[in-house]
Specification:
Elements: E1 10-13, H1 19-30, E2 34-39, E3 49-52, H2 58-71, E4 77-80, H3 95-123, E5 126-131, H4 135-138, H5 144-164, E6 169-176, H6 189-197, H7 207-217, E7 229-232
Parallel strand pairs: 1-2, 1-4, 2-3, 4-5, 5-6, 6-7
């Protein structure tokens, strides 16, 4: 069991208004941390602080961080979770579908990470956790764009880990497999059975199971872990 931080941290979860991001946000909130979630439209979930932010816009990212820092202070833990999919076989995939996924999942993550680093370096303390995917390690037919971005997050995290390790800031990637979310709930029974058959543990993961791993990586017990890729995939991608 991990211990709670001595004082509440400011935790920022991008795309934290639903699915995995929401589970992560609620897990940190239970620890007593001040949790802020970003969303593109709508409103923040009940009980959580929200800030409107579009990771594809540098102006929007700048404004969101300015709002957070002016109201609450600098971010101690960043969980970069915002992402999109635009699946399709490569021969039929439009350039727009490829670029839009890269812009959100990879460039958008870069924007949020870049804005969080300076205060962490000054404090000589900080945790940056990028939500990747098992497909970034093993590939996935019909997801050349998505898999490319999730692979890119690994290179980003490991480069940053080398740049800022001496400043006490850690950078890690959590790589989920199939998770029980609104997205996977639309799968046909046949397709679901096919995917489950490829998972040694024989089931999909819950968002809360991902959140627990993120909580650990942000905990004091994980202070010597950086540049790691931690799969939470039921064994689906083992060996990759």
């Amino acid at each position: 069991m991990t211990s709670s931080p001595v004082s509440p941290r400011i935790v920022f979860v991008t795309g934290g208004n639903r699915g995995i991001g929401l589970a992560i946000a609620r897990t940190f909130a239970k620890l007593g941390d001040l949790v802020i979630v970003s969303y593109r439209s709508g409103a923040a979930p009940d009980g959580l602080v929200g800030v409107q932010m579009d990771v594809t816009s540098q102006e929007s990212v700048n404004a969101a961080f300015a709002e957070i820092e002016a109201t609450y202070g600098s971010v101690d833990v960043l969980v970069a979770n915002a992402g999109v999919t635009r699946d399709g076989l490569t021969m039929r995939m439009s350039e727009e579908d490829f670029i839009s996924v890269v812009e959100t999942n990879l460039t958008g993550t870069f924007r949020t990470v870049q804005k969080s680093i300076s205060p962490m370096v000054k404090k000589r303390s900080g945790r940056v956790i990028l939500i990747g995917s098992v497909v970034g390690l093993m590939g996935s037919a019909g997801q050349a764009n998505y898999a490319s971005t999730k692979s890119g997050l690994i290179g980003m995290a490991r480069s940053l880990a080398r740049e800022y390790g001496s400043r006490g800031v850690t950078f890690n990637v959590i790589a989920p497999g199939f998770v029980e979310t609104d997205m996977t709930s639309t799968l046909s029974e046949t397709l679901r059975e096919k995917y489950v058959a490829a998972i040694p543990l024989g089931r999909f993961c819950s968002p809360e199971e991902i959140a627990e791993v993120v909580k650990f990586v942000a905990s004091p017990e994980a202070s010597y872990i950086t540049g790691a890729v931690i799969p939470v995939d039921g064994g689906m991608g083992m060996g990759h």
